Amino acid sequence: MTYCTFCIKLIFYFPGTVLHELAHYVAALLLGTAEGFSVVPRREGDTYVLGSVKSRTRYKVLSSFIALAPIIWWLILFLTLRHLHVVGMGRDMPYIHFSAIAKKLRAFTLLDFFFLWLFIQMLWAGRLSFPDVKNVYRGLFSFSGLVTAGIAAAAYYFIHTY
Q1: 36: nearest Cα among 21, 17, 53, 57
Q2: Domains in the chain: how many in total?
Q3: Less Cβ around it within 10 Å: N or C end of the chain?
Q4: Rounded distance, CA 78 to CA 83, Å?
């Protein structure tokens, strides 16, 4: 990625990056100890890091939940779009109201452009980075993760069997 491309990406996605890292930070406060929060971009080898959160947990499985925390932005985005009648639910599957979108596109305003940008920020905020995915698997395949999965499977079995 060239430096110019990086600068444009930084300016365009900065609010989404703050939301992404904030989700990690809040989850770290709730599930462990938050040790650092940064949205200052830096270069690490051949890649640019837009933000980071350092945390410590007592059980490794909790780091998986901290790594998954940004997905909450996609849930918030979905609920907002559902409230605005852009998406709906049918037969337990979401669907898109294309007629509502087409109607909105015919009368597109500057405020709509802002909401489109905000929508993109929420999508960016909910995206898991490669280190996030790595931490999810590292926590799930730890001893505490396997014990947690076993307890959840046993609870599911007993709830649905009796």
Answers
A1: 53
A2: 1
A3: C
A4: 9
